[in-house]
Specification:
Layout: E1 4-8, H1 12-24, E2 28-32, H2 35-39, E3 48-53, H3 61-70, E4 77-81, H4 86-94, E5 99-102, H5 107-138, H6 143-153, H7 158-165, H8 169-183, H9 188-197
Parallel strand pairs: 1-2, 1-3, 3-4, 4-5
Helix pairs in contact: 6-8, 6-9, 7-8
Keywords: DNA-binding, Phosphoprotein, Transcription, Transcription regulation, Two-component regulatory system
InterPro entries: CheY-like_superfamily, Sig_transdc_resp-reg_receiver, Tscrpt_reg_LuxR_C, WH-like_DNA-bd_sf
Protein name: Response regulator
Length: about 200
């Protein structure tokens, strides 16, 4: 499936021009003339990013970016503006924007920024999928297997874990082995990394 680029800009001619350019680069495009239109649109679950004008009628692009972050939205944003200044660009970058482009935007610069934004979104989606898989497998562990996984992730040896949970070292090995099997960990180090990714035993 092609990546999708959302464009929010109140300049219809610019939206059309950017849309044609990005479609010619084998991307799908959805355009909006106002923040409210974008917010009212159901976003698709696929590789995507947002090209966002800073100055819009009504709610500004900076406001929209802040609102998306408040909602926990990870959609990468590339800002565009014909009135930008250094403090504004610094504020946007500190807020997590991928880039801050001055209009008129050069084609190479735009495609490079969109490419970076899509790559960031792809990485984020891959990480979310990995986390979901880990959480699903972790959900199949018994309470004792979870307990032993957490203690192992803290660096405790089998003998120490046995003392902590009041069982034998052999029983700990069995539970640890079951936890590794269910989590799909090939090595104990894999299991520890999974525990760290799930923030198990971090407290």
């Amino acid at each position: 499936m092609k990546p999708l680029v959302y464009i929010v800009d109140d300049d219809a001619a610019l939206r059309d021009g950017l849309s044609s350019l990005l479609r010619s680069a084998d991307m799908d495009v959805a355009t909006f003339g106002a923040v409210a239109d974008f917010l009212g649109h159901r976003r698709e679950e696929r590789n995507s990013c947002l090209l966002l004008d800073v100055r819009l009628g009504g709610q500004s692009g900076m406001d929209l970016h802040a609102e998306l972050k408040t909602q926990g939205c990870t959609l990468p944003v590339v800002f565009m503006t014909g009135f930008g200044d250094i403090p504004m660009s610094v504020r946007a970058m500190k807020a997590g924007a991928v880039d801050f482009l001055a209009k008129p935007v050069r084609v190479e610069e735009l495609l490079d920024a969109v490419g970076q934004a899509l790559a960031r979104d792809a990485a984020c989606r891959a990480d979310e999928a990995l986390q979901a898989g880990l959480r699903h497998r972790y959900g199949t562990l018994t309470p004792r297997e979870r307990e032993i996984m957490a203690l192992a992730a803290r660096g405790l040896m089998n003998k120490q874990i046995a003392g902590e949970v009041g069982t034998s070292e052999i029983t700990v090995k069995i539970h640890r082995g079951q936890a590794m099997k269910k989590m799909g960990a090939k090595t104990f180090a894999d299991l520890v990394r999974m525990a760290e990714a799930l923030r198990i035993g971090a407290d």
